């Protein structure tokens, strides 16, 4: 629930669920030369909501971090302050901590600071995050388990285990599981930033599992 105007205390429901990203969000926005209003418009947020994120009064969801990382031309890892001393080409399974947002469970599957961001994602059968998204870049998904319903524009595709899809993210798209137990997939997207970026993403509270 949003705070009333003038309330500057952090929301207890979201405090400490993610590293303090507020300083990073403010610094990266200013580095891009964007006003609060311009950045908020591109991310599909209100200026008041983005202001709360930048002051630490709200924590962003994982989809929201993906949106902001594209707009600022950076990575989710940098937004989270995860800057390793050197790039390790190997991502160990036991070091990939799952994070949940809106019922989607994300595991980092690629290295930090790369132009390609790679995730292993569990997609639930039904969630309010299963909404249409539009943004610059390309996406590639590969189904590992379960079945996935992929809507691209007016076309709907059902993907079985082993199937993949590669598409332009400016095409309105929606991804959801077509099986009651959910689906497991690999998800890769290009890191692109554009003044025309408009994303419609979930706003649930993320938390470490």
Describe the structure in brief.
The chain is built from five helices and ten strands, in the order H-H-H-H-H-E-E-E-E-E-E-E-E-E-E. It is of the alpha+beta class and 209 residues long.
- Give the N-to-C terminal Cα separation: 22 Å
Structurally, the number of domains stands at 2
- Sheet/helix structural class: alpha+beta
Overall average residue pLDDT:
75
Uncertain runs are 1-17, 192-209
Q: Major sheet: size, sense and barrel closure? A: 7 strands, antiparallel
Secondary structure: helix percent: 10-25%
Gyration radius, to the nearest Å?
17 Å
Spell the H/E element sequence.
Answer: HHHHHEEEEEEEEEE
Counting DSSP E segments of at least 2 residues, the number of strands comes to 10
Count the DSSP helices. Answer: 5
Beta-strand portion reads 25-35%
Shape: globular
């Amino acid at each position: 629930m949003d705070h009333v105007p003038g309330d500057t205390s952090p929301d207890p429901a979201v405090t400490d669920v993610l590293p303090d990203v507020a300083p990073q969000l403010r610094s990266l926005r200013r580095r891009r030369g964007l006003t609060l209003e311009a950045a908020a418009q591109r991310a599909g947020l209100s200026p008041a909501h983005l202001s709360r994120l930048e002051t630490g009064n709200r924590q962003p969801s994982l989809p929201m971090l993906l949106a902001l990382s594209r707009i600022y031309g950076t990575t989710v890892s940098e937004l989270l302050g995860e800057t390793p001393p050197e790039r390790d080409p190997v991502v160990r399974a036991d070091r990939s901590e799952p994070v949940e947002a809106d019922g989607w469970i994300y595991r980092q599957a690629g290295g930090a600071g790369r132009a390609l961001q790679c995730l292993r994602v569990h997609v639930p059968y039904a969630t309010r995050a299963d909404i249409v998204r539009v943004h610059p870049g390309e996406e590639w998904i590969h189904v590992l388990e379960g079945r996935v319903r992929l809507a691209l524009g007016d076309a709907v595709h059902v993907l079985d285990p082993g199937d993949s899809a590669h598409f332009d993210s400016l095409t309105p798209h929606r991804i959801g599981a077509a099986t009651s137990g959910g689906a497991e997939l690999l998800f890769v997207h290009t890191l692109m930033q554009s003044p025309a970026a408009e994303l419609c993403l979930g706003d649930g509270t993320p938390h470490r599992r």
